[in-house]
Write a structure and sequence with these properties.
By secondary structure, the protein is α/β, with parallel strands linked by helices. The chain contains 5 helices and 8 strands. It has a single domain, classed as Rossmann fold. Helices cover 28% and strands 18% of the residues. The two termini are 20 Å apart. Bound molecules: flavin mononucleotide. Its cofactor is FMN.
């Protein structure tokens, strides 16, 4: 079994694209293939000590899922199924996609929702990210002045995505035992 589980949820495929690009950089022993959270349950999460979790924000500050008019179930429907999972001893890194121009009051909120969820259940979250270089008014994903994970905006700053992903992977590499 791969050491790191990689799970994502979104609506129009951008989060999937980033997740797949991340996986491409690592072999199958190191990282599992990127899996859409619409297809998983608690057992899939429980088996990994290391988790990379990606989400876009939908609605206005919502997790992707049916309430936000997404095509399929997603994080909204998965989180209740994970209520009983003990994240103690698990290391989690989060990446979020949002649109700081279109949704400046809810930029990347879904990443913050998932952060709260796993922290409340004992996870160690690594990979916080500076807010420098982004313009927005409010975000649930900012804690103590930093994003709780990698902040991506493919709608307005797609040219920065590759370098941001690269720098972030380098940052979390020691915690995840990655060679990058
Ligand atoms: C209907 C709709 C609502 C959105 N709401 C938010 C939001 O509240 N906050 C945010 O940061 N981005 C928001 N976005 C932007 C998406 O998160 C962004 O386009 C993202 O890259 C989509 O990724 P996906 O294709 O994986 O869903 C919204 C986009 C749409 C279409």
């Amino acid at each position: 079994m791969a050491k790191i589980g990689l799970f994502f949820g979104g609506n129009t495929g951008k989060t999937r694209k980033v997740a797949k690009a991340i996986k491409k950089r690592f072999d199958d022993e190191t990282m599992a293939d990127a899996v859409n959270v619409s297809k998983v349950g608690a057992d899939d999460f429980a088996q990994y000590q290391f988790l990379l979790l990606g989400t876009s924000t939908q609605g206005e500050g919502l997790l992707p899922g049916l309430s936000a008019d997404c095509e399929t179930e997603s994080w909204e429907e998965l989180l209740p199924k994970l209520e009983g999972v003990d994240f103690t001893g698990k290391t989690v890194a989060l990446f979020g996609l949002g649109d700081q121009v279109g949704y400046p009051d809810n930029f990347l909120d879904a990443m913050g929702i998932i952060y709260q969820f796993v922290v409340e259940r004992g996870a160690k979250v690594v990979g916080s990210w500076s807010t420098d270089g982004y313009e927005f008014d409010s975000s649930e994903a900012v804690v103590d002045g930093k994003f709780v994970g990698l902040a991506l905006d493919l709608d307005n700053q797609s040219n920065l995505t590759d370098e941001r992903v690269e720098a972030w992977l380098k940052q979390i590499a020691p915690e995840f035992g990655l060679s990058v």
